[in-house]
Specification:
- By secondary structure, this protein is mainly α.
- 83% of the residues lie in helices and 0% in strands.
- It starts with a helix and ends in a 6-residue tail after the last helix.
Amino acid sequence: MAGADLTAVVVAAVGVTGTMVAPVLAQWARRQELAEAAERAELRLQQDRNEGDLQRRRNLYAVLNSAARAYRTADYDLVLALKRGESVDGSALEVARSFYRDQYAQAQMVLPGRALNIASEVNRCLSLGCRLVRMLPAHVGHQDAWSRTETWFRTPLAEAVWLLRHALRQDLGVLDEFPDLVDLGEQLRAARKSMERELETGRDRSPSSGD
């Protein structure tokens, strides 16, 4: 009889405990559900942000690449026109230059280190190209000046624009295999430095450099 009473007491205790614990468990389960839902929502929001950031960078890089190509083309077109003896209007070049500079300024705010280093070097190379073009009227009849300028636009500067495009593509994760950006960037820098030294040497030797 005592055993039956004990069993009844245990059953009653379990029943009471279950009644008390059930709401706690339900509340805990609800909190877990809400926490998981909030985590999923935050994950979706972060994914949307990442996708939006990637799209913004993709758009900016595409415009920067196009602007750099247009800047080089406008410069080189002016070189060829001057060589043919045509009268030229520099307004197209100024428009291309101004637009490129605006895009480059924006890209500086988002480009990571390696891509920014390449973009900075390409910017210097484009500026040097513009400098060479502006120097051409002072070298009328000097074939070496024309040859030097055309060579710069056809080779180092063309390669610079190519390198910029690939650096931007790499940052977007477009390419699986990629050339050594650091090595190519150093080669481009060396070519620019060599041209700048050549210009400085030519200026020092010119009749107008001083008596």
